[in-house]
Amino acid sequence: VTRRLAPAGLLVALITPFAAGRQQSPQQTTFHSATDLVTVAVSVKNGNVPVTGLTADAFELRDNDVPQQIDAVSIEVVPVDVSLVIDLSSSVLNDATEFAADVGAFTRMLRPIDRVRIVTFGSGVTEAVSMQPATSTLDLTGIRMGGATSLNDALLYGLIWPKEPDRSHLVIVLTDGYDSLSTLDSDSLPDVAGRVDAVLHTVLFDWQGLITPGMRASQVALIEATRRTGGEMHRPGRVLDDFSQILDDFRASYVLRYTARNVTRGGWHNITVTLRRAQAEKFTVRARKGYGGG
Amino acid sequence: MNAGSSVALVTIARAFLPVLCALMLASRPPFAAPVGPGVRDLLNQYERGEYDDALRAMADLPPAPASEGGSFDRISQDLRDLAPEWIAANGPVGVDRRRLVLAAFAADLVRARPDVEWRLRYPLMAWACDLLRSRPTHLAAERWWYLASLAEIEEAGDWADALDHLTHATAAFPDEHRFLLADVQYHESQTFLGGLADPPALSGQEASPALVAGLGRVVAGGRVAAPFDQFSPDTAQLILDKIARIPAVAREYAALSRYEDLGGDVDLHLGFLLLRTQDWDGALDHLRHVPERTTEPLLIGLSHYFSGWAYQRTGRYDDAITEYRHALDLAPRARSASILLSAELAQTGRQAEGYVVLGSALKASPAPDLLMPPAQRTRDAPADPWLLYRRGDAGLAPTFLAHLREALK
Question: B22-53 b/e with 16+ CB inside 10 Å = b?
């Protein structure tokens, strides 16, 4: 059942999540450009099913086209910083109370070591809730809906959160995908997304109004940006189910560690990750496209 | 009355005074007359050259609903009513100067209240223009009045009003080069794609060969992929017609390059037109000359902003960062430059620095002027230079008004 988050003027809920003790689950992380040690989050799926049990031998990783020795592969517990980026337009948010409840339920899926922040966007971009432990009380008072859509600017703000090296960053955006007021142009968004240290998952809502060419271009750019971070597109179902699926995908990712060798340390590093296995063509491999060298 | 009864009365009065005051305040209409100097006092203050106080008082008039104009209507009418007597108050001597002071006061008053809808402010500017046109003052400062008032009207974004006013300005000062420039700026505005409601991204004004080719396929009825799949043939033709005007506008700007005082403007606009057609190096050739040909920070800042864009689109990220930083040096609160700078920093591995730059820009309060609904605008929120580019000399309005006031002293 498709459910839309609801319009209403003002969110007044205070959310007090109580993070449940959860079984340790696989985490996705990225790479550390500050040192020569690089970590890369890799999602491997057979259709929609995560592929498990892979070892280092199964992967081939190239850094600026130079094959690298993978030191370790793990599905491990890494603290996650989550940025929820929420479109305040009426095509996405229908019910303020439900939205607040959904955010509260989402934070309860996280662990005490995880953190969450909420970035909202309409005509402007606002960090409605700054990054804080998932167990904190999230004050959503004052979030107002409506206005134009600064999607690209909001995504930029969501993506470039400066996470600490020992944490991973998951960005979840709920939007109709149509930008109408950003300074960052749609052509640039995928380039930026492909180069920052975050994984973007997009829940794409329908929009019933007039679509201008610029709006169409922004949706195309959003899809490409999501792909380049190694994330995925999602159609809206129940919002909580969306959140849950994204978290499960994120946690089912492998973390490849390697020490960059035979490449210049500075500048941009392109990364390619493939599977060596004979049936590799059956699987979908998603990983970031690179990192900025220190 | 003895001393004891006096003390008792004072005690009673003190006890009830706060209550009385509260009752009086509560009974005031929501948009009551301002407590402070009236229009005549403000005008006299302005005429004496006490501009800071007068301007502050204008801006501090009580807030009014934008849809109603509120106190602006009243003060505007007061100004018109007192004008004949005030102008003639000192006899024939100084009449011309007082008429110009009155017109300057009106221009400042219109600018002081951006929270009032433009359609409610424009009549006062038109009245001031009529005041001067009916009998030119022949004062040199009158030129500054026309420059300032035209810039204000352009800032409002209504080119119909601006063209009307430009006719009057040109008639008064046919040798003013900036009025020639304004005419070409209007022609350039006719090539802009979409209105001000469109995304402020520079790419929204793209007129690249690829765009032209894609739109051409739409008009011809051929198969097209995204983003052209959303264009109707009529819309595509409309955009093509606008783009087709760009070369003629470029020639008009080039013709103005013979006026040395317009050198910076001409290079800025020619650079931007080439930027739109994605002639990156051609654009940079013009943009790099802007700082040599003008001292106006707004124009120089925009030349850096546009240069940053050219470098960004050609993968020269470090050069883009340098240019955006220069732009921000000249306009520290330019949100557009901050956003693009942060994107480039993130792209080059300086994500944490980019986050700080972007966070500061997004949290700046108040936000850039033109992004704000009229009722939330204030004089303290300078407009983003990029948003002003499409509004003629709007960004120079404060400069022109300052020159005007100085000349009236």
Answer: eeeeeeeeeeeeeeeeebeebbbbbbeeebee
**Which residues are paired to A263 by β-bridges?**
none
Name the strands in the sheet holding A59-63, side by side, starting at the edge strand that comes first in the sequence.
A66-68, A59-63, A267-275, A290-293
Q: Which pair of structure tokens corresponds to residue B353?
A: 């620095």
For A73-112, give the DSSP string.
EE-----EEEEEEEE-STTT-B-HHHHHHHHHHHHHHS-T
| C-alpha to C-alpha distances, B32 to A232, B41, B70, B71, B231, nearest whole angstrom | 57, 18, 9, 8, 52
pLDDT digit string (tens) for B240-288? 999 999 999 999 999 999 999 999 999 999 999 999 999 999 999 999 9
Does A189 or A197 have the greater pLDDT score? A189
DSSP letters spanning B130-168 = HHHHHS----THHHHHHHHHHHHHHHTT-HHHHHHHHHH
Q: Kindly report the average pLDDT of chain A as a whole number.
A: 79
Interval B79-106 mean pLDDT = 94
Mode of pairing for the β-strands spanning A290-293 and A267-275: antiparallel
Q: Parallel, antiparallel, or unpaired for β A138-139 and A14-15?
A: antiparallel
Question: What is the pLDDT of chain B when averaged over all its residues?
Answer: 84
Calculate how close chain A gets to B231, using CA atoms only, in Å. Answer: 6
**Rounded CA separation A23/A109 (Å):** 11
Report the C-alpha dihedral over residues B355, B361, B363, B365, rounded to 10 degrees. Answer: 170
CA–CA distance, A170 with A163 (Å, rounded to integer): 10
Query: In this structure, is the dihedral angle defined by the CA atoms of residues B127, B130, B134 and B138, taken in order, positive or negative?
Result: positive
pLDDT tens digits for range B343-352: 999 988 899 9
Lowest mean pLDDT segment, chosen from A268-272, B15-19, B78-82, B278-282:
B15-19
Helix (H, G, I), strand (E, B) or coil at B62: coil
CB contacts of B339 in chain A (<8 Å) are 153, 156, 182-184
**Position B112: which residue type?**
A
Does pTM surpass 0.80?
Answer: yes
Of A264, A98, A33, whose CA–CA distance to B346 is shortest?
A: A33
Q: What is the mean pLDDT of residues B322-348?
A: 93
Contact residues, chain A, for B386 at CB < 8 Å: 183
Q: What is the pLDDT of residue B374?
A: 52
CA distance linking residue B203 with residue B206, whole number of Å: 5
The number of angstroms, rounded, from the C-alpha of B218 to the middle of its chain's C-alpha atoms is: 37
Nearest to residue B97, comparing CAs of B352, B328, B405? B405
**Taking CB atoms and an 8 Å limit, are A185 and B204 in contact across chains?**
yes
List for chain B the helix, strand, coil content (%; round to 5).
70, 0, 30
Q: What does the angle CA A261 – CA A265 – CA A270 come to, to the nearest 5 degrees?
A: 80
Instruction: Inspect the interface and report whether the beta carbons of B343 and A188 lie closer than 8 Å.
Output: yes
Question: Going by DSSP bridges, is the β-strand pair A168-175/A80-87 parallel, antiparallel, or unpaired?
Answer: parallel
pLDDT exceeds cutoff 60 at B182 = yes
* A189 → chain B, closest CA residue: B343
Residue A160 DSSP one-character state: T
Cβ contacts of A179 on chain B, cutoff 8 Å: 199
pLDDT digits (tens, 9 = 90+) for A198-215: 899 999 988 766 666 677
ipTM: 0.80
Average pLDDT over residues A29-49: 69
Chain centroid offset of residue A125 CA:
18
